[in-house]
Each structure stands twice: as C-alpha cells, then as structure tokens.
Amino acid sequence: MTKYDIEAKTVEMLKTVFDPEIPVNVYDLGLIYKIDVNDDFDISIDMTLTAPNCPAADFIMEDIQMKLESIHGVNKVNVELVFEPEWNKDMMSEEAKLDLGLM
User: Fold this and answer.
1) How far is it, in rounded angstroms, from Cα 34 to Cα 56?
2) CA–CA distance from 48 to each of 23, 41, 101 (Å)?
C-alpha cells in the first residue's frame, strides 16, 4: 500500500459520507479542504461545514473518522474542523450542483 493508494481510498470513503440534510456527499459538496497522508499512513483532514452551526457536525465528523480508520494500513486519523475559507456553493463539484438543481 502506498500513500497514493491511501489517499485514493480516503477520497473513495469520503464520497460515502453525507450530511443527513443534503443528498450529496461531503467530498463533492466541497467540504473537504485538505487531505494529507504522511509516511506512517496517518491521515489528516481539514474540513468545513455548509454552516458553522450545522446540527449534524458531530455525526458527520464521527462518520468520517470511523470510515477512514477502517481503511487497511491507516495508522491514525485526525479530522480538523476549519471555517476559513468560508464554504460557498462554488466549492461544489459540477455533479453536486446538478444533483441539487443549481445548474
């Protein structure tokens, strides 16, 4: 397993995490700002939320933590919640915008 494999698997797993109120995964919503895999296969994620007072924040972060820890070869996972830059709809993938009828 290489760092690239872990990173690819991380993206794959992030695409299975959803905000319960939005039918688009956190990756395509543009909520993931940084994915860093170090030489020990520790994963660091910087992510944000669509709104700072998101009621599902704990659920989403726990879901990410559990799913990434389940990747074979991963040592530790750190999910950091950041609010800079502030999230906006332009950060969504084209597919997400289509799914939500914004195009």
Assistant:
1) 20
2) 17, 23, 22
Question: Do the Cβ atoms of 79 and 45 come closer than 8 Å?
Answer: yes
Q: Which two tokens stand for residue 45?
A: 């994620």
**pLDDT tens column, 45-82:** 999 998 888 899 999 999 999 999 999 999 999 999 99
Q: Has this prediction a pTM greater than 0.85?
A: yes
Residues 6+ apart with CB under 8 A from 28: 15, 92, 93, 95, 96, 99
What angle do helix axes 3-14 and 57-69 make, rounded to 10 degrees? 140
CB-CB contact of 77 with 66 (8 Å): no
Is the CB of residue 83 less than 8 Å from the CB of residue 50?
Answer: no
